[in-house]
Write the C-alpha cells for this entry.
Amino acid sequence: MLTGQTILVTGATGAIGQAICTALALDGARVLIHCGRNVAAAQALLARIGGRGAVLPADLTDTAAPEALWHAAEAHGAVTGLVNNAGIRSEVDVDAPMDEWQSVWAREFRVNVLAAADLTRCAIRHFRRHGGGRIVNMASRAGQRGYASSAMAYGASKAALINLTKSVAQSHGAEGITAVALAPGWVRTEMAEDFIARHGAAAALSGIPVGRMAEPAEIGELTAFLFRPSQLSLNGAVLDVNGGSYLR
C-alpha cells in the first residue's frame, strides 16, 4: 500500500517512533530513521524492518540540525513523507527562577515546534519538486484541552504543532502537499511509565472511559494508514487517539 514511498520519521527510537517505523515498513515504505544519541537502537530498528531504509542521526536541539537532517534524507532519493514525531516533555514550576523557566520553554519549543517547522519548510520545498507529499505531525491531547501548570510548555508546543498542521493543509493542499495531526492522550511509553511511577496508575487512567492507555502499535498503524494515497481528504484533520478522554 505504501510501496514506492520514502518517509522520514523523527524521534524514531522511542516507543511510538519504533511502532510508526515498523508499521510503515510493513506496508511497504522505505523508512528513514532519525535518532538523537541512540544510534545503536536506530540500527537495531532498521535491522528489524529488514534494512528497508537508513539511520540518520541529528540533535534537534541544534538550530542547524533540521535542515542538515533533511539534506541527509534527500541523499536517499525523493522523499514522499515526513513524520514530525520527535518531542520532549519537561516540567518547571511557575515559582522556579526565571532563567530556569525560560530555559525549559525554549528547549521545549526548539524540539517540539521549531525543529518540526524547519523540517516542514524543507519538506514543502522538496515536495514541490517531486509532485507532492504528506506530513504527519504528532501533537497531543494536551495541545487541545490545556495541560498541567508544571508542563504548560509541552501543551503550548503541541497546540502550535496543530496550528502548523492546519496552516500547511490550507496553504499547500492545492500543490499536492497535505498535512494531518494525531493528538494522542496517554500512550504506554517511557514517559507514561515515569508519570505512573511518580503519581500512580489511577492518575494516568482517570477520565479515560475505555480504561487503558493507547498502545504504541495503535499510533503506528494509524500513521501508516494516513500515508495511503487514498486518504487525501484527511488533509488538515486532527485525529484524536485518547480513549474518549477529550471529546470535541
Q: What stands out?
A: The longest helix spans residues 98-129. The CA atoms of residues 55 and 192 lie 26 Å apart. The domain at 6-186+215-238 is CATH 3.40.50.720 (Rossmann fold). The chain has nine helices and seven strands.
